[in-house]
């Protein structure tokens, strides 16, 4: 990948631990309890609470466990929350062993002044103009059974704006085809009720199984979930795997297998069934070697196929264990598509530093495994990042600095063999999407991305600022496409007696290869969650 060695060197320098970084210090004063995550159910994949829990692990306030398999379950350390003294001490309460409770309501609003921008905000789609969303529900535990019903209702003005002149008509996607990724989901206002963060799961004897529509995040990325993220929320699915890391002597293993249905946006249907519903099957495995605390190594594999006429069965799931090459045939003798990745994360408990990377490939190796060895950059993407916590574990204030870089652009191989941007496919033309939104990372799809952010955590909440860039690539060598999005935004979370207040304000500039495509968007997002 272009510049990979330079990127890695910069990350290592930026994340190198300071002397004494992990030493504990006596807090200068007591911290008032926070009011963010009064129940485990609020630490959803990609949420504010989940990001804090990840920092707590780096401080040693949370036992080390895999962060590459999210959402969390009763066997994960994050489910129980951090212990001891830390800035948000009192905010995380252990889950009830039995009984039921109300999931705190959540209300949020988003305003986009110039163009639609909806990323990493779950099933909601924020068009131009105003967007509102609300969720509430109940949760409970009965023996080994845990459930949550927390649907989300959202509505957006979806006002008109100038679209990029991309193939596919008025609502064209960022490629000439192979993905259901419209720039605009409809011609006017729209909304829907989504199952949201809902699930039912059984955890017994170290294993788990259930059904879910909650967001899933696979891989170590903080800003980019290559395979799954909370960008589009979660697909309706069944799942099975380990409920907690299992001891295998030389370390621990943790994993999950899923099978779900991907719905299309309807934008490209034109009264036909050209883009059919898709079956997505996938698996992820993570290994943590005992001699190297804080290191996790893992791999993922996903398959897309047409939804079987008679419904999915075992033959559709066993494809996950098929050889890496050559191409295989999925259910109904319809060509399928594959996504796969390998990743690593190093986060030594108490040191306040973590480094991670993930390398992904799209589609099977075209010829044999030698193809993978000699041309690994074909239809590939690389994500690398770091996160560093500043401040002792018991200090009343933590600072967090993070950075991430993404490279998924087309390479010189395009001169001699076909390539596509990740998530697209010729046969499975809906791509890796759910109702017109990516299940993975917008930065990976855009061909490139970067992010730098700083956050300050205190008993009062969080203050943060971040810069991010995201490419708008096309499927040809170089992949410059229509330029890139450049953004600078500030955000805050404030704990009050009435509830948790959040605010984010950002300016996003679409800087094109041609000035004709330049545009500016001011995005304002606000949220409120009442106190129990």
Beginning-to-end CA distance, first to last residue:
49 Å
Mean pLDDT: 83
Low-confidence stretches: 1-40, 270-274, 327-334
Helices and strands: which structural class?
mainly beta
DSSP helix fraction: under 10%
Oligomer: single chain
Can you count the helices?
A: 6
Write down the CATH class: Mainly Beta
Please compute the radius of gyration using only Cα atoms. Answer: 22 Å
CATH topology annotation: Porin
Word description of this protein:
The chain has 532 residues and is mostly beta strands. The chain has a single domain (4-530), classed as Capsule assembly protein Wzi (Porin), CATH 2.40.160. Helices cover 8% and strands 39% of the residues. The chain has 6 helices and 25 strands. The strands form 3 sheets. The chain has an 18-stranded antiparallel barrel. The protein has a two-stranded antiparallel sheet with strand order 1-9. Strands 19-20 form a two-stranded antiparallel ribbon.
């Amino acid at each position: 990948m272009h510049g990979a060695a330079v990127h890695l060197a910069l990350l290592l320098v930026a994340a190198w631990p300071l002397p004494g970084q992990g030493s504990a210090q006596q807090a200068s004063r007591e911290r008032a309890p926070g009011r963010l995550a009064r129940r485990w159910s609020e630490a959803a994949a990609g949420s504010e609470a989940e990001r804090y829990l990840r920092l707590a692990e780096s401080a040693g306030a949370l036992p080390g466990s895999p962060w590459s398999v999210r959402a969390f379950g009763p066997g994960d350390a994050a489910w129980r929350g951090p212990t001891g003294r830390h800035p948000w001490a009192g905010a995380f309460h252990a889950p009830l062993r039995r009984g039921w409770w109300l999931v705190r309501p959540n209300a949020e609003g988003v305003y986009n002044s110039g163009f639609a921008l909806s990323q990493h905000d779950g099933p909601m789609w924020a068009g131009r103009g105003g967007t509102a969303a609300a969720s509430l529900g109940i949760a409970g535990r009965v023996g080994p059974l845990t459930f949550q019903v927390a649907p989300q209702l959202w509505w957006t003005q979806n006002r008109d704006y100038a679209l990029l002149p991309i193939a596919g008509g008025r609502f064209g996607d960022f490629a000439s085809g192979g993905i259901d990724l419209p720039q605009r989901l409809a011609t006017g206002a729209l909304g829907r009720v989504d199952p949201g963060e809902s699930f039912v799961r059984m955890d017994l004897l170290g294993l788990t199984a259930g059904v879910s529509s909650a967001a899933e995040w696979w891989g170590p990325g903080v800003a980019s979930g290559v395979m799954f993220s909370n960008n589009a929320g979660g697909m309706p699915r069944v799942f099975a795997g380990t409920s907690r890391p299992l001891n295998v002597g030389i370390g621990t293993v943790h994993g999950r297998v899923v099978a779900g249905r991907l719905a299309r946006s309807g934008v490209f249907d034109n009264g036909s069934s050209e883009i059919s519903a898709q079956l997505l099957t996938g698996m992820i495995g993570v290994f943590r070697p005992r001699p190297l605390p804080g290191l996790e190594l893992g791999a993922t594999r996903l398959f897309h196929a047409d939804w079987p006429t008679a419904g999915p069965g075992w033959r559709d799931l066993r494809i996950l264990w098929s050889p890496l090459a050559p191409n295989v045939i999925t259910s109904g003798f319809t060509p399928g598509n594959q996504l796969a990745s390998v990743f690593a994360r190093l986060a030594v408990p108490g040191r306040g530093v973590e480094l991670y990377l993930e390398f992904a490939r799209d589609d099977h190796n075209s010829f044999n495994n030698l193809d993978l060895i000699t041309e690994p950059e074909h239809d590939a993407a690389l994500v690398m990042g770091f996160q560093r916590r500043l401040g002792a574990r018991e200090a009343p204030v933590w600072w967090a600095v993070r950075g991430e870089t993404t490279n998924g652009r087309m390479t010189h191989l395009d001169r001699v063999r076909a390539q596509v941007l990740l998530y697209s496919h010729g046969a499975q033309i809906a791509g890796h999407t759910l109702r017109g939104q990516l299940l993975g990372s917008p930065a990976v799809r855009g061909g490139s991305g970067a992010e730098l952010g700083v956050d300050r955590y205190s008993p009062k909440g969080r203050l943060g600022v971040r810069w991010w860039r995201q490419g708008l690539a096309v499927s040809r060598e170089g992949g410059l496409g229509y330029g890139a999005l450049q953004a600078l935004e500030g955000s805050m979370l404030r704990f009050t007696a009435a509830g948790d207040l959040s605010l984010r304000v950002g300016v996003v500039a679409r800087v094109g290869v041609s000035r004709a495509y330049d545009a500016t968007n001011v995005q304002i997002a606000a949220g409120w969650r009442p106190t129990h």
